[in-house]
Amino acid sequence: MDNYQPLDSVEDVEEFYSAIERDKLTHKLSPERPYCYWTIETYDKRNGIRGGGGLGVLAADMRRVAEQLSVPFVLVTPFYPWESHQKMQDMKQTDFHTEQHYEDYGFNFVDNIHIKTETTAVELSVIEKKLGSTRFLCVTEPNFGELYSGESGSDHRLYQEVALGFGGYQALKLVGLRPAVIQLNEVATFFAAVARLDELVSSGMDFYEAVVYTRKHTLYTNHTLVQAAEARFNYRQFEQYVFPNIKSVAVKRWLSDKFTNGSIQLSTPTVEIAELRSGVSKLHARVANYHDINGAKIKFKSVTNGIHMRTWVLPEIMDYYYEHEILDKFDLPPAETLSEKVEVMSAEDIRHLKLAGRRKLNEILSHRTDQYGNSIQIPEDAMLFDFKRRFVDYKRPWLPFDNPHKLAEILEKYNAHYILAGRVHLGDKRMFEKLMGVLRTIDNNPILKERVHYLPDYDEELGLGLSLGANSSINTPIVGLEACGTSWMKDIANLGILISTHDGGVADMPSDNYLTISGRNEGEECAELYRQMEVAAQAWQNDFDLEYWIHKELVAYLDIISGSRMMKDYLNYLF
């Protein structure tokens, strides 16, 4: 469903740039001096790179939006030669791996480069793929492993981050590019800024001038909330993997000074080397708990995540948005008249469009199996709830199963099904056991066994299908722990009713714009969740209520959802 059709003309490009508050952006960005976006994770299976969650999906969408808007943009990321998958057998989940070859996805080999360890030089292949005004620029080698292989503070994880930072910066030079700006997505990309700083100093620039220059051209985007959750690396690991790649004694000394008690958290030097710092929702920017080396709290600017609408929204719905001027050619809603534009959408329109989405979902489900190894199809006249997110504690995928008898009663009463889809990170034994507990709960209740379907090996195709075909999505993070999330955006854009706690990007707008889960404890939240599931089911049976909630969500969130809005916000902040 990807549609990367760029803007139609030079005039369209100029019109988009004219919306940026600072003039002459085109003088700052060019094919030779592009926007350089570093990320350890990308989720773009069409291009052979499978991520682990929202960070990777966001990275892929940033590139897609840049291509659509003709922004000169380079995505610097690893190409992982292995990727992990999951399957169910005898009600048990197992992991397996598949090998990936970049040639199969249209990447071209550029040349080999080298990074250093304390004892040897490691050869990395540089590969690239050009797509309109954008390109993938990747480093890879046969032993690079898979995404997030090893423990977070392990030697191999540090090696991957060093390869991405120092190797990725060499790759830019190899293809003749100089970054107009570097965006560091999470601290795993920190070494790209170090590589730039080291090059400036080694070329003769005064160290402090080089620091100022690097800071002014570097944006650090934080996607998590608590600095204490980060991995730590020790000084010996830096001696082995990091310092051999730094030429300047001054840069080595600067970096060495960031260690405390023999270890370092990469966010500490990252916030120092990046003058621009952003959080990925309004709430996240307010509550992110990060401090510099002196203990001062770091301030983040809010740039809420968005999605590439043409990838994640049913084409028939996008056509409807364009025809009724709910979105313009940039995929931005009209600021002044959105409410009146949305009002024309009738319950009949919504049901007709959602039925097309259900059929697309069932096409995707036709080659998937549930926890019992069965292929499933969701009847066109059935209500469908879904939970589709990475399986971690704070997202609480088990919450709807707190009272299995109540859940079963709702599903049976409203002829509803529930699809549970997500991935447990490798090594997360506690979450894996919780998932197995949920599956046992389902198996022990005949109604749930018939109407609740767990789909393993969650990926972007399944995520897309569920956004298109589900009537209502459930989002249950513990308030204060979700940075943004984008699954809920896809649900709203595809005319689903959102049931959520007031967290992450959902909290950019007041809680009366969707069906809110609240309570003083988890028990109260669970009771409210069941109540809101009934409200959503009843709304799909009532024209007035259906129009009320869909209209309300679109008016409140369509601008927030737009990836073009996100790109415009970043360009305004950067330039």
Description:
By secondary structure, this protein is an alpha/beta fold. The protein folds into two domains: 10-78 and 104-303, Rossmann fold, CATH 3.40.50.2000; 313-562, 3-Layer(aba) Sandwich (Rossmann fold), CATH 3.40.50. The protein is built from 22 helices and 19 strands. The strands form four sheets. A nine-stranded mixed β-sheet has the order 5-6-7-2-1-8-9-12-13, sandwiched between helices. A six-stranded parallel β-sheet has the order 16-15-14-17-18-19, with helices on both faces. A hairpin with a 4-residue loop joins strand 5 (108-116) and strand 6 (121-131). Helix 4 (155-174) packs across helix 5, helix 5 packs across helix 6 (207-216) and helix 18 (460-469) runs parallel beside helix 19. The longest helix has 20 residues, at 155-174. The chain is globular, with a radius of gyration of 24 Å. It starts with 9 loop residues before the first helix and ends with a helix.
Q: Strand count, sense and closure of the main sheet?
A: 9 strands, mixed
CATH superfamily of the largest domain: Glycogen Phosphorylase B
Number of domains: 2
Amino-to-carboxy terminus distance: 32 Å
- Would you identify the CATH architecture of the largest domain? 3-Layer(aba) Sandwich
- Strand residue content: 15-25%
CATH class of the largest domain: Alpha Beta
| Beta strand count | 19
